[in-house]
Write a structure and sequence with these properties.
The complex is a heterodimer of chains A (about 160) and B (about 160). With about 160 residues, chain A is an alpha+beta fold. Helices cover about 20% and strands about 35% of the residues of chain A. Chain A has a domain of about 110 residues: Roll (Thiol Ester Dehydrase, Chain A). In chain A, a hairpin with a 5-residue loop joins strand 3 and strand 4. Chain A is elongated. In chain B, strand 4 and strand 5 form a beta hairpin. The chains are: A alpha+beta (about 160), B alpha+beta (about 160). Chain A: This is FAS1-like dehydratase domain-containing protein.
């Protein structure tokens, strides 16, 4: 397999429950003591309809709230992140999380259910100064509310060093 | 997270309906720095992040497994560092006011490392109320473990 064959591969779509407790614990874990993540009244005073998720929460959201009974069917050919990593590492080498990018459109709110879709947006193969092959893989994920409005776009860049 | 040290961004007394310590668009100057936040990384920090994110990669909480993989000990999740840096960003611009945030992971953070946030305003667009910031989380040697940038629309004075 050539790594560039992965371009266009879909990530399995996920339906993700955004829970208040998950947000509160995540905020504590990234050293954020703001009451906005802990108290509905503080969130309301800050202008939110419900407790919002911290900026990097959606990176973890699928692991936290994609309960099995809610998941849509898996399209043919879809690969999850672990499977993409395994495919890249097929012939050995090291996989690194090189970059992570978030674009924020609307807040992700506690008590809502969001839908996450994604795909392998791009694969670039280069050679470093020592002649080793470096493969950069961009995985884009879109988080939308139930009405289909875009909330957050994320791009995770993985680096495979042969 | 330890207490913030040496705040350099100007702050105003909170007005009605504003969060305490709100920094307004008008307060931010190109070249200005956000208050520095510092923490000494502990294994407890990593276990807490592992639990809260469900990232249970043993390299971040199991020293034996980390050493078997050739590392000197467990080390921080990149997304833990990115999350702490995001906390310092929203402390400055306000929760909900980030429009974009991008990080590169440059080296590992080890237990015992003293990690400090370093955030600089790099541009302001008066017309649309947008600020751009450079941000990094650096260890005591001054090496960045995460470098990045952000775009935000802080609250404006009416």
């Amino acid at each position: 397999m050539s790594a560039t064959d992965l371009i266009g591969t879909q990530l399995p779509p996920a339906t993700v429950v955004v829970e208040r407790g998950a947000i509160a614990a995540f905020a504590e874990a990234v050293a954020d003591a703001s009451p906005v993540y802990q108290r509905p009244d503080a969130a309301a005073a800050a202008g939110f309809e419900a407790i919002p998720a911290p900026p990097t929460f959606t990176f973890a959201a699928r692991l936290l709230g994609a309960f099995p009974d809610l998941q849509p069917g898996r399209p043919d050919g879809a690969l999850d992140t672990t499977e993409i990593i395994a495919a890249l590492r097929g012939d050995g080498g090291l996989i690194l999380h090189a970059e992570q990018e978030f674009t924020y459109h609307r807040p992700v709110l506690a008590g809502t259910t969001v839908r996450v879709t994604g795909e392998v947006e791009d694969v670039r193969v280069t050679t470093n100064s020592r002649g080793k092959r470096m493969t950069f893989v961009r995985l884009r994920s879109d988080t939308r509310d139930e009405a289909g409005e875009l909330l957050v776009t994320e791009v995770m860049t993985l680096l495979h060093r042969a | 997270m330890d207490d913030a040290t040496a705040p350099t961004a100007p702050t105003e007394a909170a007005g009605p309906g504003t969060e305490k310590g709100t920094v307004y668009f008008e307060d931010l100057e190109v070249g200005g720095k956000a208050p520095v936040r510092t923490l000494t990384l502990t294994r407890t920090d990593l276990v807490r992040y592992a639990g809260a994110s469900h990232d249970l990669n043993p390299l971040h909480h199991d020293d034996e497994r980390a050493r078997a993989a050739g590392m000197k000990s467990v080390f921080g999740h990149g997304m833990f560092s990115a999350g702490v840096l995001a906390t310092a960003l929203t402390d400055l611009v306000g929760i909900g006011n980030l429009r974009g945030y991008k990080v590169r992971f440059t080296t590992q953070a080890w237990p015992g490392d003293v990690l400090s946030t370093d955030i600089t305003v790099t541009s302001k667009d008066e017309a649309v109320g947008l600020v751009e910031l450079d941000c990094q989380l650096v260890n005591a040697e001054g090496t960045a473990v995460v470098t990045g940038s952000a775009v935000a629309t802080p609250r404006r004075r009416a």
